[in-house]
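Researcher: Checking consistency across runs. Here is Methyltransferase small domain-containing protein again:
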Amino acid sequence: MTPAPKDAQLHETPLPATRALCRADPWLRQRERVIWEPACGPGAIVQALQALGHHVKAGDKYDYSDRWRGRKGQRVAWGKDFLSLSPREIPKHDAIVMNPPYSGGMADAFMAKAFDVSPRVYALLELDWIQGGEVARARDQLMDSPYWLAFYPFRERLNEMNRDGWTGRITPHKKRHAWFVFGREGRADGPYTRRISIKEFQHG
């Protein structure tokens, strides 16, 4: 298994960001969903979902087992590149919840793959991902379709999402973020939109 290189694009998801999503989203408010996190890193999203009563399957291209934050003893598919998985390697699940890598078109590639293999996808993305254009056709196809179910932009900046290994001062994040939700069942009247906040989850 390959340890994560310095350029692995790991920006761990703050626990309050996942908790705020689960509070706002009716589908995730129901416990014991089977969730797949295919780019789990050390397990920040996994930890939050398990604490809320969900069953979480996890994997990552790199090995973060020495920093694992999910349930002790959990089997994690380390060394599995999500974009290269064959249909036989896709675990049974109800939804994907992920914070994919962003640069180099990776977010678009992860989103296209996720929606291809999963009935429902939750992705933490930079807010400007909502912009499409000719260089982002896969993005346009998703967001201009009835499969865009919900959009949860954060009121605050997620200042804790610095690149892994950052030891400097925590300053306001340059980007704003939102949870984007897509599902096969579709929504004829466009995505449900609700601003969410991390404040009430920051001290507990």
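Researcher: Does this match what you'd expect to see?
Model: One thing to look at in this run: The first helix runs from residue 15 to 24.
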